[in-house]
Amino acid sequence: MASSDLGRPSNVPVWILSGLLLLYGALVASGALTPMLKALHVHKQVDLMEILGFTFGGIGILTAMLRSTRMNKPMTNLDTFVLETIPGILFIVMLAMGIRWIAEPIVVMMSKSLVPVLGFKIHKVLNLNYVVLGILVGIIITNSWGIPKFAASGVKTARFVLKMGVILLGARYSFAELAKLGMVSVWMIGFFVLGTVFFVLFLGKVFKQPKSMTGVLSAGMGVCGVSATVACAPVVKARCSEMAYTIGTILGFGILCMFAFPTIGKIVGMNATQFGAWAGTGILNSAQVAAACLAFNAVDIKTLKVGEIFNITRVLFLPIIVLVLASWYGKAAGQKLSFKEVVIDKFPIFIIGFLLLFAMSSFGLFSPPGHYKGKYLDFSYNQRTEVTPEELVVLKNAKLEGLTPEEQAAYNDLVKQHQIAGNFEDRDNKDMFDATARKRMAGLESILAREKGKEITISSDVKSAVKHAVKQVHKKSKTIVTLTDAMVWFFAYGLIGLGMQITRKSIAQAGGWPLVMGAISGVTKATLSFIVVMYFVKDVVLK
Question: N or C, where is the chain less crowded by C-beta within 10 Å?
Fold first, then answer.
């Protein structure tokens, strides 16, 4: 127990933050903010807004009252780890709420409004989601007026909260999905993921870069971009500036690839499957993979499907890379360590939590074992999977032209059964029932893709009804949804706090080598994967 009398920051900011949080919760509960929330398309989260506002506001009021009784008294463990930490937590929570429910929706709306001018959604290109916005807000605060004195202790909790988010990330992955993917994607992605990771580690040695910088960059460039960066940073003890450099390198390289890949693919005459495989291997960010596939071919849905399958395969290698980097970093000090010392004694405890949830997810404890990120297809006959009566009237009265026989058959069956499903007489044969339903869903997705590519014309009401029918068969595990929501908030909180630790000095010290290493490894992977795809990937490689 510390006995020194340390001057405590003022209680005024704590009272103000607590009051604002309670006021926000009250305004949401009263419905006064509903029109604004609907305009921002976040009104469906009003329950969570109330919970966060009242809960943290109440905690803040209690903390302020306790702190007022402790002013000018010797610091104790209660002060150090609780009363002086909570004000900073409240500060970051309020920022996270502002980013998730105000800043991000506004950025999305502005981006969509610029589509007629730019021809694309700039928030997708720059990946301006809560992750990037949170880091940027943290960087701006710490490099402008600085971290408020009352929040300093709370900011230090960012890394711990981020680790909690990484643990929950494990629930979104499953070996079951990997087992269903084509072996070409598994072998190809396995080679390029591991190859890129080891290549970046080699470049780090050549350019004499810190092990932490090299490790986090290898994960980001090799696996799945920002998610891998966040998951592996604690394993290799990466600094905030090193994470920032890695994320910046990944997003910058992805933007270039998103424009270059479709152009190159068309010049060399790639088919839909080849381009999807190349984009899913060479482009790291999921949104950028989808954008590149749609830019290459917005009509044939196969391009996007193949790209996302290869992308999913790469993401599922994350647990393996975490283990590889944990072992590598354990040996990086130059000591001769045994397997026990590297994998057991030196292994980060929070990664055990990540792998535990990954294993639980793979065994189907959160949702059926065939899920991916908690989503799976449910073609069963039930009211939940049906279109609404109003949509059914629209579908029955529509007269569509230009459909292929497969598309027309799928559309007719949707009208007949009011939902996407297999044949009633095959309902006891699940494999046959599901295969027929998947074929019909593919036909409806083809209609939507061709409409988007302006190959056919359908009314907005019909398009909305078909989209709803497709959406209805995508079922979500409530457990996975809850864990994912918690993960999002842990990441939002943790990354704002990490951004506050990225100063101009730390960025300058990092130098430009991460960009050089990222460019070399990224171009090498894109080039080699292009060659492999052109020679070994045919038109149909997946079921």
Answer: C
